Amino acid sequence: MLGLYNTVLLPLRAATTLWAAWDARREGRAREWDERRARVVPAIRGGGLWIHGASVGEARLVALVVDVVRSRRPELAIAASATTRTGRGQLPAPPRVDAAFFAPLDFPGYPGRLLDAVRPGVLALVETELWPNLLHAAAERAVPTVLVNGRLSPERMSRYRRLKRLYRPLLAGLSRVGAQTARDGERLIEMGVREQALVVTGNIKYDLPAPAVEVHRLRSRFGLAPERPVVAAGSTANGEDGAVIDAFLETRRTCPDLFLILAPRHPERADDVAREAQVRGVRLHRMSSGDDARAGRSDGLLVDVVGELAALYALARAAFVGGSLVPIGGHNVLEPAAVGVPVLFGPHTHHVTEPVDSLLAAGGARRVGSAGDLAAAWIRLLADDVRRETMARKAAVVIESNRGALERSVALILGALDSQPPVPAT
């Protein structure tokens, strides 16, 4: 079945080769493509940890795991990788790790070349990074593979079922699997993970530290008066920005000096978002301009840089988390909750089912179905301090009561590492 998978990939591999030749002419892209095709590989000691996460959210979890492993095993060589450019930018850098790089594309030969260079004692994959050629290459080299923070949404499960003959033998070879929930564990076992390899560890995102924020300093930085009300919309997707801006305009009818923080999930969409706001008569200050103090003279702040959103949520009286009004599946609903802000999200949250359900059950969040619903929720929370503070407090309890997955996940990784014989020096 792996042979058929690779046959299907042949046209994509050819197209990727042509695209890489063209794209590599752009500044900084040649090195990226060399890493993606495993033409450039890190030179580090063998026998350590290679940990991989796809994008920004997973890269933050990679950093958490790396720091705990480094504190326990300071002598261990650690390599970290990501798939997306934004994720690569969020990976921990040396000396926190020995090497950070783009993960190889899942074409035959690429993962193996990297594994031969890194010679890890353990390969750790975050959430759903189950690439067939990577798993096969690790198994061929007897490298134990650990899945941490593992999850399978119903949508992804339906796709995996169609490829069950491909994935079953690969997943059966996983050394240890930490699932976010019991339901995720059941789905993983159905797909081929061995029952004795699986542990329900919980969700590491509950262990992400809240950013250290002094709200008055942050307000001063962006030229916001102490009492100016702020709402936020983070990780918005294509098709959501217009609805968010419409909700902002509707809310501003009852709160004329309202300020909007709008952070598209992918900063490269910022030009489109800015145009959409301008068409609706909303002036957004772009964070990348560097002149932060001028933001308060505008209607809102367009967050077109990576790594700032978690702290900016602290300015808001209520926050909407995107990827949820459109059928993407939702993003990190715990970030605003962690800084004491009530959380709102749309109907499409199948990628974050467990934290959404926990927040809703506790009364720390609310689901909205449209721009009108979002405006109504913002208006209610802006007008009712008691309701807002109660929601924030209940959300904080959810986060605190679900901590501990980080420690359990590190234990899985180190357990797999300790079960291996030492890697000989070369």
Can you name the CATH architecture of the largest domain? 3-Layer(aba) Sandwich
CATH superfamily of the largest domain: 3-Deoxy-D-manno-octulosonic-acid transferase, N-terminal domain
Distance between the termini: 35 Å
Question: What coarse outline follows from CA principal-axis ratios?
Answer: globular
Give helix % range: 40-55%
Mean pLDDT: 95
Task: Tell me the strand percentage band.
Answer: 5-15%
The number of E-state strands comes to 14
Structural class: alpha/beta
CATH class of the largest domain: Alpha Beta
Number of helical stretches of at least 4 residues:
18
Summarize the structure.
The protein is of the alpha/beta class and 426 residues long.
What does this molecule look like?
It is a single chain. Helix 4 links the parallel strand 2 and strand 3. The mean pLDDT is 95. The protein has 426 residues and is an alpha/beta fold. Helices cover 45% and strands 14% of the residues. It folds into two domains: 25-202 and 404-418, 3-Deoxy-D-manno-octulosonic-acid transferase, N-terminal domain (Rossmann fold, 3-Layer(aba) Sandwich), CATH 3.40.50.11720; 215-401, Glycogen Phosphorylase B (Rossmann fold).
Properties at a glance:
about 425 residues; alpha/beta; Rossmann fold; 2 domains; 7-stranded parallel beta sheet; globular
Question: What topology does this entry show?
Answer:
Blueprint: H1 2-23, H2 29-36, E1 49-53, H3 56-72, E2 78-82, H4 85-90, E3 99-102, H5 110-118, E4 122-126, H6 132-140, E5 145-150, H7 154-162, H8 164-172, E6 176-179, H9 182-191, E7 198-200, H10 215-221, E8 230-236, H11 241-252, E9 259-264, H12 270-279, E10 284-286, E11 300-302, H13 309-312, E12 318-321, H14 334-338, E13 343-345, H15 353-362, E14 365-367, H16 371-383, H17 385-401, H18 405-418
Parallel strand pairs: 1-2, 1-4, 2-3, 4-5, 5-6, 6-7, 8-9, 8-12, 9-11, 10-11, 12-13, 13-14
